[in-house]
Amino acid sequence: MQAASKRALDALEWADVEEALAAHPRIGDRVQGGTREAGWSRGEQSGMDGTAADLQAALVEGNRAYEEHFGHVFLICASGRSALEMLGELRERLGNDVETERAAVRRELAKIVDLRLAKLLEGT
Question: Is residue 24 annotated as a catalytic residue, yes or no?
């Protein structure tokens, strides 16, 4: 399944990637609802739990700057990462040109898809 997923992701036009990005919450936003995907998102962003207010504010500002610069939500596979790590990655990627950032987004999207496929297969 992961190989098929990789082929499918590699074949996506950028407009299709943007459609996928539109379904992802900002880092630090807590998805509401009882769907499986909402639960996965909350779990993946558990590194944000208990984050200090100044770090949360820095992420909000970083998300805003990123979206103004690139025109879409900052995407990162948040599983296992702390809020500070994600902020550092966000700030680093703000320096990317558009093509470099699109490649980074595709890599992060692939990580998220792989993670969720594994959860789906595990039945969690």
Answer: yes
Give how far Cα 72 sits from Cα of 27, 44, 47, 102, 123, Å. Answer: 12, 20, 22, 10, 31
Domain that holds residue 112: 2-122
Number of domains in the chain: 1
pTM of the model: 0.82
* Window from 13-17, 47-51, 68-72 with minimum mean pLDDT: 47-51
Helix (H, G, I), strand (E, B) or coil at 57: helix
Q: Active-site residue among 6, 24, 28, 88?
A: 24
Could you tell me the CATH number of the domain that includes residue 37? 1.10.3330.10
